[in-house]
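We modelled the chain as a single entity of 296 amino acids. Its sequence is:
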Amino acid sequence: MNENIGWELYRSFLSVMQEGSLSAAARALGSTQPTIGRHISELERVLKMTLFVRTQGGLTPTEAANALLAPASEMASIAEAIERVASSQFDGIQGTVRVTTSDVIAIEVLPIIFADIAERLPQVEIELVLSDKVQNLLNREADIAIRLFRPTQTQLVARRIGNIEVGFFAHQNYLNKHGVPMTLEDLEKHRLIGFDRLTDYIRAVVKTLPFSVEKDSFCFRTDSNVAQLALIRAGVGIGICQQGLAKQDDNLVRLLADDFCFEMDTWVTMHEDLRKSPACKAVFDQLVTGLLGYVD
């Protein structure tokens, strides 16, 4: 016998054996009587044996049919097991995933990505930690981190998103009232929005400027990137903003683009052991896809 026999033929055979007739088997399988009859005939042809004797009282199984009943039942059990495994893989994408990132990424960038995750992964719960601090993924303070630097720990799975460009921006209303700075030195004559406490990221930014910058250089100081962005949008003064966020507001104007441009190397990371977690892996992949779209 060289022909491959599809499971549907054996399934129809098993149903007839269990239900006692073509019509009852069709109802049990949600099929039609002619379809079940064709399956039985095809199975008999391929096996080259008679499985049922047609009588006025219905179908009577032959000895060959009775001999096939046990292996056919085993096949049904295997098919059900396969369906359970496949189903469990879908059902396995559930649980809680803890994500950490900066406040401005969390509030301005991630909501639309999380909306997509909620639709695609309805059984996954997200815990969002707003922090610029380096959360320790090795100790599971967070499952997934979106970081603005390349991770160095070898136990982490990391996917580079690309560079997020930042620059000086101001609202058009502010520039109408106070003029447009033409050089970096002109910034010292303007109301600047900046940090309250010095961090490694801020140190990297101020190194690119041709003049010294301390917290006293700013008229409005806050360590919240979201608050800084809100002040820029309100026309309070000039501050640093991500290019991708500024594009969402036509009233925000890029200043001194040729003189100042800082790029943040952006990564999505998680502990390598979490690749075995369907929920963490699925959220990780969705975050990567969404952030790649944002950077592009």
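As a brief sanity check on the tokenised model: The two ends are 57 Å apart (CA to CA). The first strand starts at residue 52 and ends at 55.
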